Amino acid sequence: MKELIISSINHNLNNAIALLDAIDSETYCDTSVGPYYSSIGSHIRHTLDFFDCIINGLDTNDIDLTARKRDEILSTNIDAAKDHIYMLQKTLVSYVDVNTDYLIHVTDNMGQGKVTVNYTLESILAHANSHAIHHYATIGYVLDQLGIELKIPGFGYNPTTPVNKREGI
């Protein structure tokens, strides 16, 4: 199961690479689209932050999703974001053969303060993958509003979306 989850994540991260290869820096950093005025780069950085929190917290069994680095270089520099994705992919693949038969403490803020709950590695990785897809959908909206048409099949769509509706950007 873990291998399938990591393979799925890496597929979605490859979609991010395809996106980054298809747009220029100006598009990556554009904050002109409302209502949130966030750039594609800020959404990519945010999804990478989520994976970083997992990786950084595994050794201590304390993943804190509120302790994001928010490295602005990843928000503004396509090459840095791509390099970071490649590093994440390599790290995730290294987890395939690691014993994960234990619960991991994951802290997040649900809007009324921090709460810590137990996850398995597989469940937090699946959560991170869904989180990335959610932000990819927002990126698709930003691209549409900017009048940029790209073809990355399935980008921004959950795999459970009916196939006839899952075109991607």
Please describe the structure with a list of short key phrases separated by commas or semicolons.
169 residues; mainly alpha
Which helices and strands appear, and what pairs or packs with what?
Blueprint lengths: L1 H21 L2 H5 L10 H19 L3 E3 L7 H5 L1 H17 L9 E6 L4 E6 L1 H25 L24
Parallel strand pairs: 1-2
Antiparallel strand pairs: 2-3
Helix pairs in contact: 1-5, 1-6, 3-5, 3-6
Describe the model.
This protein is mainly alpha-helical and 169 residues long. The chain is built from 6 helices and 3 strands; from the N terminus they run αααβααββα. It has a 3-stranded mixed β-sheet with strand order 1-2-3. β2 (104-109) and β3 (114-119) form a beta hairpin. The longest helix has 25 residues, at 121-145. The protein is globular, with a radius of gyration of 16 Å. The model has no long low-confidence stretch (mean pLDDT 93).
